[in-house]
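**Sequence, structure tokens**
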Amino acid sequence: MYIEQPLPKQRASKRLTLAPSLAPGLPIPFFLAFKELWRYRGRYLLISLVIALITTLVLFIGGLAEGLGAGNKEYLDKLNADVVLYQANVDLSIPSSRIDRSRVNNVRRVEGVKDVGTISFSNATIPLGGNAAPLKVSLIGIEPGKPGEPPAFEGETLKGKRDRAAIIDKNTALRTGLQVGDVFNIKSIQGTEEKLHPLTVAGITDGRQYSIQPSVFVPYQTWEDIKPKSVVDNGPETPIFNLMAVQLDNPRDFEAMAARLENQVSEVEAVDRKTAYESTPGYSAQQSTLNTQRFFTLLIGVLVVGGFFQIQTLQKVAQVGMLKAIGTSNLSVAIAFLLQIIAITILGVLIGGAGTLLLALSFPATVPIVFTPESVATAIAALVLIGPLGGLVSVRILTKVEPLTALGLAS
């Protein structure tokens, strides 16, 4: 007689773990994150491309801010001086500042002053020939061998105060094709007539734009001869300068020396280079506008990424509930989700950054966009953070999912 033997009684199973069965050798969060990324790669690539477009926009706004800022501040920022002197009571307006030779001599006699150079500004044009529009330049008069004269990285510096020679910055060289030794014409309006003044390129310096225009540097007496004038001057006149560039024996003693110069020399105001270029017309307003645009672009990026992952979260509540039911911890779910966000964000930033830099190579020299390592690094760091910031709400939702509720088994 066959007697059915009872099956051996199984012990109550413990909560299952995923690591041995699903992802041997790979931590659960990594397995969950990248398994889903690969399974829905088209969907996640789409959001990476959106992040790439946001990256491109942020980098271009940052490059435009740097380019326009450099167009206003390049020369003053690179000035080989510790103190910049204006005429007093002109609100640091360079066109309104008028300094005569007597005050320059008084500054030289102040104890602690190493050297002084005068700087004068005006505008002129360089005819390019053919149908090309003439190039507008900042015509800057300086004293050869004194503070204010830029270094010549090609060719040589200026020699005499009446030399018919010029140092041009690299922006002028790029837009005109001029090289050391070439002769070119500067056109200015004197009286009611247009006059051409031939100059020889003595040297080429780096970017030294002023008033968002390329710069041409000439000796101050030559500058007096060729600057635009309301009437034609035939006789000698007392030179008037806009600024004085002052080098100090001890540059770290700026505050005390600025006060001393203002006390011992009448009608002057002393500032540092940063204050000088920030006071140029439109600089502060321009930078504030562009920085505001950059901030709102990043804010839009946070909202877009956050909205995408919010939708993704709501679509996989049941799967998360199942994972929790078989023993996956909240920490593993949260880490997996954050890994997805970080991977997608980094991919989008890399695509956008590479595309932006490649596109920038096609821009002509006239486009005022400059990418500096500092601004690019800051923008990329901010962009990498927008993903995790945008996904924080979704992580919170996932950690609050109840397994039975998510599976519809709650009573």
